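Module 6 notes. Inverse folding takes a fixed backbone as the condition and produces residue identities as the prediction. Think of it as a translation problem where the source language is geometry and the target language is the twenty amino acids. Below is one complete input and output pair. Work through it position by position during the lab.
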C-alpha cells in the first residue's frame, strides 16, 4: 500500500526527517508530514491559496527531431490528503506547446512527437523538476513521464541513471502518462517494476473510463491518477457518475489521486474512495 501514518503519497520510510529548506513551504504544509506532538489527530488550518495556485513554475524550450520548437512549462502544485485536508506532497504539472501554435505545424506532416523527443523532454523534466520539488528526508514528490519513455529499456535506463545523479532525499513517484490504454497490463507491469524501490514508485495516469481502469487492476502501481478536468462533476447528477468512476479506481488500486478536482467536492470525493487530490481553481475549467 502506498500510504503511511502521515498520509503522504510515497513509499513508507524507516526514519523520520525534516525539510532541509523550511522556508520553501508554508507552516501548514511543513506540519502536514507529521501530527502535532500534543495533538496527534489535529487538522491544521490551510491557506486558501494552497488549493490550486502553483508554488513555483519555470519554462524551457526544446527543438524536436523534426526541427520544431517546443515550450515546456513545469509547475509545482500541492497534493492534498483528502482524509486530513492537508497538503502532503508536491506534483509537477507539465504543459507542452508548439512555439507558434498550430499554425507552426502547418505542412509539417508530423503532429506527434517522436520517442527520442519524448525522452529528451522527460530527462529535462526530471532535471528541473527535482529541484522544484525540494524534497525533504521524509517527503515525496510526483514527476510526470511518458509511457513511451518507460516502455523501452533505453528510456527507463536513461531516467534511472539521470535520477541517480541527483543527491536528493525523499521518495520520487513517477506518474506514467499517455498510451497506457494501448499497452497490455503485463507490459505495463514489467515497465513499472523497475521503479519499485524504497525511494521510487509508479503512479499510473489513467483515462476517465471505467473499462480502462479495470484493465489495470492488480498491477503494483502505488496509485492511480485521473484528470477530472475531463469529468463532469459540478451537478448532483454529474457527481453520481463521477463517484462511481472513483469507486472503480479504488477497487483497482489502494490509492487514487484526482487532478483538477473542484475544492467543494473534496469531502464527497474522499467518501467515494479518493485518497488524494490536486485541486482546481474555482474558475471554469477548459479542456
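Target side of the pair, the amino acids:
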Amino acid at each position: 500500500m502506498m500510504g503511511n501514518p502521515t498520509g503522504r503519497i510515497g513509499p513508507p520510510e524507516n526514519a523520520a526527517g525534516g525539510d532541509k529548506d523550511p522556508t520553501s513551504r508554508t507552516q501548514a504544509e511543513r506540519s502536514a508530514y507529521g501530527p502535532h506532538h500534543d495533538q496527534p489527530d489535529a487538522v491544521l488550518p490551510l491557506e486558501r491559496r494552497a488549493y490550486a495556485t502553483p508554488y513555483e513554475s519555470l519554462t524551457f524550450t526544446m527543438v524536436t527531431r523534426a526541427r520544431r520548437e517546443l515550450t515546456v512549462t513545469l509547475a509545482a502544485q500541492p497534493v492534498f490528503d483528502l482524509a486530513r485536508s492537508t497538503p502532503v506532497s508536491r506534483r509537477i504539472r507539465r504543459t507542452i506547446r508548439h512555439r507558434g501554435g498550430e499554425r507552426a505545424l502547418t505542412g509539417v506532416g508530423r503532429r506527434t512527437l517522436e520517442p527520442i523527443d519524448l525522452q529528451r523532454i522527460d530527462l529535462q523534466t526530471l532535471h528541473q523538476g527535482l529541484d522544484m520539488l525540494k524534497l525533504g528526508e521524509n517527503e515525496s514528490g510526483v514527476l510526470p513521464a511518458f509511457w513511451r519513455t518507460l516502455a523501452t529499456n533505453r528510456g527507463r535506463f536513461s531516467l534511472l541513471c539521470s535520477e541517480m545523479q541527483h543527491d536528493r532525499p525523499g521518495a520520487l513517484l513517477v506518474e506514467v502518462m499517455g498510451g497506457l490504454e494501448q499497452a497490455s497490463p503485463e507490459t505495463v507491469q514489467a515497465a513499472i517494476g523497475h521503479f519499485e524501490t524504497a525511494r521510487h514508485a509508479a503512479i499510473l495516469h489513467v483515462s476517465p473510463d471505467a473499462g480502462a481502469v479495470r484493465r489495470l487492476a492488480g498491477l503494483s502501481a502505488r496509485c492511480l491518477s485521473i484528470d477530472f478536468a475531463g469529468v463532469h462533476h459540478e451537478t448532483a447528477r454529474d457527481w453520481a457518475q463521477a463517484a462511481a468512476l472513483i469507486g472503480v479506481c479504488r477497487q483497482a488500486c489502494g490509492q487514487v489521486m484526482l487532478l483538477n478536482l473542484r475544492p467543494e467536492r473534496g469531502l464527497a470525493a474522499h467518501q467515494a474512495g479518493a485518497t488524494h487530490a490536486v485541486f482546481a481553481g474555482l474558475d471554469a475549467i477548459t479542456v
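Reference fact for the lab report: The chain is about 30% helix and 25% strand.
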